[in-house]
Amino acid sequence: xxxxxxxxxxxxxxxxxxxxxxxxxxxxxxxxxxxxxxxxxxxxxxxxxxxxxxxxxxxxxxxxxxxxxxxxxxxxxxxxxxxxxxxxxxxxxxxxxxxxxxxxxxxxxxxxxxxxxxxxxxxxxxxxxxxxxxxxxxxxxxxxxxxxxxxxxxxxxxxxxxxxxxxxxxxxxxxxxxxxxxxxxxxxxxxxxxxxxxxxxxxxxxxxxxxxxxxxxxxxxxxxxxxxxxxxxxxxxxxxxxxxxxxxxxxxxxxxxxxxxxxxxxxxxxxxxxxxxxxxxxxxxxxxxxxxxxxxxxxxxxxxxxxxxxxxxxxxxxxxxxxxxxxxxxxxxxxxxxxxxxxxxxxxxxxxxxxxxxxxxxxxxxxxxxxxxxxxxxxxxxxxxxxxxxxxxxxxxxxxxxxxxxxxxxxx
Length: 412
Ligand SMILES: Cc1ncc(COP(=O)(O)O)c(C=O)c1O
Prior knowledge:
Layout: H1 8-11, H2 16-23, E1 30-31, H3 44-57, H4 59-62, H5 72-84, E2 94-97, H6 99-111, E3 117-122, H7 126-133, E4 138-145, E5 148-149, H8 151-163, E6 168-173, H9 187-200, E7 203-207, H10 223-226, E8 232-237, E9 249-252, H11 255-269, H12 274-286, H13 289-314, E10 322-323, E11 331-335, H14 342-351, E12 354-355, E13 357-358, E14 371-375, H15 381-401
Helix pairs in contact: 3-12, 6-7, 6-11, 8-9, 13-15
């Protein structure tokens, strides 16, 4: 049967990771694969209490449709919260979304014609790749450095993309504890990014799901706070500080952008869940949100330290083996010598009962086969120690199976 699918479905890739995750779900496997928050961070009792109250005593608001832009009593505290971080978005410049992923989809829907260029880091968040690909974007990868994108490479990529006939539209960034690499952008790079955006007339999409989960060092102002021109679209989510299953977040940006987003969101889902918005309103009003975030950050600090210590103990001492030391978030990123393919290595890892996420799908240029992502959020500290010991053994076996480096063939 000829299904006559739309052209955009041919450019949309199924997530390889989702397929591989199925292999890692056996209970005897210690998995650092899924990027999920630790369920002990969900405020279950509070949620149960306020959900019952909202359903029984406030159903005209909690079970009814609401406006597409979202409830004002939610947008108002969000606006104040963003302001504490230097970001100036009044409530009429904020749309409540079904978490950050819907924000990505709506940004793509509002801005992208087929072939338009979106600049993303190498590596970048896969859900963003999928959202932009669904609108037939031309995705251009820009190498990452320890303190953010290589901005010289970004400048060159914008120019060559324009020459090749594509319209450069968006730069997508996750400046705080990026998924997947754990990297954080310096203040200098955030400012320079805005300069490039101004020179090249680009919009910056700043995705910040992990911003509030800093466990080391001082916060760096968001790009949206440094932006004096209104070129930044901010994606916020409750997923990592409240509960991802509620699917709740927000998009904030210039007024004209927000108006378009609201119009197109109407066609998508009319509104974001009223009940879940009421739960978030109550969370912000009644819960010790600052204490809760501190609790989550403390938990991940402990787990991240356990993983870093275990890596130092168990990974072969080899300068071609490197990993990031994140200051927050859920992930760290490992680079192995060229020639090791982490997708093939995953089968060996599963035999050793440990799992990770392969790195290549996070790269839009087809590279990254020697990389992998480790999530420290879900496993216990004991499992982290044992899992990294197993991973060290797997890497050792892979290294032993590598042909000896000869001449200039191996770039290391
Ligand atoms: C960088 C980034 N953006 C967006 C999302 C989507 O999160 P949500 O839709 O739950 O807000 C994630 C999820 O892990 C992420 O890592």
